[in-house]
Design a protein that fits this description.
- The complex is a heterodimer.
- The longest helix of chain A has 15 residues.
- Chain A is built from seven helices and 13 strands.
- Chain A is of the alpha/beta class.
- Chain B is globular and about 70 Å long.
- By secondary structure, chain B is an alpha+beta fold.
- In chain B, a hairpin with a 3-residue loop joins strand 3 and strand 4.
- Chain B has a nine-stranded mixed beta sheet, with helices on both faces.
- Among the domains of chain B are: 156 residues, Bira Bifunctional Protein, Domain 2 (BirA Bifunctional Protein, domain 2, 2-Layer Sandwich); 80 residues, no CATH class.
- In chain B, helix 5 crosses helix 13 and helix 12 runs antiparallel to helix 13.
- Classes of the chains: A alpha/beta, B alpha+beta.
- The interface between A and B is large, with 44 and 42 residues.
- Chain A: Pfam families: HisG (PF01634).
- Chain A: It is an enzyme of class 2 (transferase).
- Chain A: GO terms for molecular function: ATP phosphoribosyltransferase activity.
- Chain A: InterPro entries: ATP_PRibTrfase_cat (IPR013820), ATP_PRibTrfase_HisG (IPR001348).
- Chain A: This is ATP phosphoribosyltransferase.
């Protein structure tokens, strides 16, 4: 049996992952037509490349269907309950940097900290008869962060895309989203709270703790990890 | 332990509650997510299962019976009323996967505003009686004493309400107390904001539902708060001393009576505690050995705002409490949109009792 390595199937994340492995003597390539998700591995025997959507990689690792996978820390922490018992981070790859942050309208000059957000949420609920809405797709991470921060009187609304536009469209009062430069936030008249980000994420190589390994796979895995210097 | 056994035990408890004057009540498993979210906040999502109905919208598998029982009572009940129920509740266990995601609860609720302490005692005494054979350790508390202390603090109304709002979030409560006492530095952003001649100058366009007037109101509030003198060390000490009260009821009562000298606002709440002790004794509870902890129920029981209690198996610290309950007037007030509806009650988990029986072999 081969060792399965899951890599994001498109975009910069895929290219950068290919580069990272190439620098360490392992060549990953896509094969077949542009649209076909098939790949090949050269430089080490017995490893199979599986191209997947970055958001599916955490789950595939947790189920043990792939042995290794490259994805963002944000997706692993959001998708997997008790993530550290299911996967082990082996290496941070140094790209795909993004912070999960809470942002509010820049016009909220009175809100800079979680303490302020909590006070604003209380007043907002009293004035509008509804909880202050925060749009995000990272429900678990944001909820845990706000619980630790002791923020009450808010509620999360789901937003799978164009989250920065929700405030202007009156479907949320604040947002929690991934940002790398903050430019989109600024363009949408939002500002990041003056707090530690909810999470600092980057592309990371994870090992599944549940994928079954026979003798040969164990040897292959050890060989691959040695090859890439881990 | 089988489900049938748990069901039988629950039925036995319900029958006992019926003997005590309760009417059986049946509740839907699918509850309005909107109602529960509005009451308990976003945290309920991490504890309850949410499902979608194309016509009814988001539904939640009932995480407890409190809300549906209160709703049923408000719909067609007349005061005073006593109810009993039994059935499955559903809880997601993200942080404790070894705990059961569904289990049976048997409960007893009293809606009676005539003598609140008597109703408190009636619920606790019935529970103590029914649970006697399992050698459990009861604990009691009273959130009403802590809130009375906060209401009596010598500080602004705004600070008192902020503290009251965070009674159930001890970490935030602590942070607020430290800030009001001047023990933590004011954030740089706050100082800059208060020093700005026109804070709105660089605000940019107004977007979203929160209005400029709301922002101005908060700026006024922040300026007033900055001018407010710090909460004195004596006042902070009072709250800290109060939170540490943990002894048997008679000693706790003595201790609280002593504290009244420095904090007279405590008196009505301590009077209620004293009266509850009398009512408990009258119902056959040995108050002299009953534990009272002033901070009991603060972390897990939001919306319990008076008497709180729990029964735990000391030999099995890994298990959650076998029975819990308390007074939840604040919850009924919110559900009844301002209509007051004094209510006290509690639930028992037969599955945990059966596990304890098995332990004994």
């Amino acid at each position: 049996m081969t060792v399965k390595l899951g890599v994001p199937s498109k975009g910069r994340l895929m290219e950068k992952t290919f580069d990272w492995f190439a620098e360490r003597g392992v060549t990953l390539t896509r094969t077949g037509s542009e649209r076909e998700y098939a790949g090949a591995v050269e430089g080490v025997e017995g490893v199979e490349l599986v191209l997947l959507s970055a958001s599916e990689i955490p789950r595939e690792l947790a189920r043990g269907r792939i042995h290794l996978g490259v994805t963002g820390t944000d997706l692993v922490r959001e998708t997997l309950v008790q993530w550290d018992q299911k996967v082990e981070p082996l290496a941070e790859l140094g790209f795909g940097h993004a912070d999960l942050v809470l942002a509010v309208p820049a016009a909220w000059v009175d809100v800079d900290t979680l303490d302020d957000l909590d006070a604003a949420a209380a007043a907002f609920r009293a004035a509008h008869g509804m909880r202050l809405r925060i749009a995000t797709k990272y429900h678990r991470l944001v909820r845990d962060y706000l619980r630790d921060g002791g923020v009450a009187d808010y509620r999360l609304v789901d937003s799978q895309g164009a989250t920065e536009g929700t405030v202007k469209n009156l479907t949320a009062e604040a947002i929690a989203d991934i940002t790398s430069t903050g430019e989109t936030l600024r363009a949408n008249h939002l500002k990041v709270l003056d707090e530690e980000p909810i999470l600092r994420s980057q592309a990371t190589l994870f090992r599944s703790r549940s994928a079954v390994q026979d003798e040969r796979q164990r040897a292959t895995l050890a060989g691959l990890l040695e090859r890439i210097g881990l | 332990m089988s489900r049938a056994e748990a069901r039988d035990l629950a039925a036995r408890f319900c029958a006992a509650f019926e003997t005590a004057g309760a009417v059986p009540v049946d509740c839907d498993i699918l509850q309005s997510a909107e109602t529960l979210l509005d009451l308990y906040g976003e945290d309920i999502r991490s504890r309850a299962y949410v499902t979608q109905d194309p016509a009814l919208g988001e539904r939640m598998l009932r995480p407890d019976f409190t809300v549906p029982v209160v709703e049923a009572h408000m719909r067609d009940g007349a005061e005073p009323a006593r109810y009993t129920y039994a059935g499955e509740v559903f809880r997601r266990q993200e942080d404790d996967p070894e705990r059961a995601p569904e289990y049976i609860q048997a409960g007893y609720e009293i809606f009676d505003g005539r003598d609140a302490e008597d109703a408190d005692a009636a619920v606790f005494a019935r529970f103590a009686e029914l649970l006697a054979e399992w050698e459990l350790t009861p604990a009691t508390g009273d959130i009403g004493i802590l809130s009375a202390a906060i209401r009596g603090l010598e500080t602004s109304e705004r600070r008192r309400s902020a503290l009251l709002r965070h009674i159930w979030r001890p970490r935030r409560f602590r942070a607020l107390l430290d800030r009001y006492a001047g023990r933590t530095p004011v954030p740089a952003t706050r100082t800059a904001l208060l020093e700005a001649a026109n804070p709105m100058a660089a605000a940019g366009p107004m977007i979203g539902r929160r209005t400029e007037a709301e922002i101005s109101d908060r700026l006024v509030a922040l300026r007033e708060d900055a001018a407010e003198p710090p909460l004195s060390d004596g006042q902070v000490d009072l709250i800290e001393t109060l939170l540490k009260v943990s002894e048997t009821c008679p000693y706790a009562l003595q201790h609280l009576r002593d504290m009244e000298v420095d904090l007279p606002a405590l008196r009505p709440a301590v009077d209620r505690f004293a009266r509850r002790c009398d009512r408990l004794a009258a119902q056959g509870v040995n108050v002299d050995t009953l534990d009272f902890e002033a901070s009991y129920g603060r972390t897990s029981m939001e919306y319990y705002d008076g008497f709180v209690f729990g029964f735990s198996a000391v030999r099995r610290p890994d298990l959650p409490p076998v029975a819990t309950g308390g007074r939840y007037d604040a919850l009924t007030e919110r559900l009844g949109q301002g209509r007051t509806l004094p209510a006290v009650g509690g639930v028992i988990r037969p599955d945990l009792l059966l596990a304890l029986t098995e332990d004994r072999g």
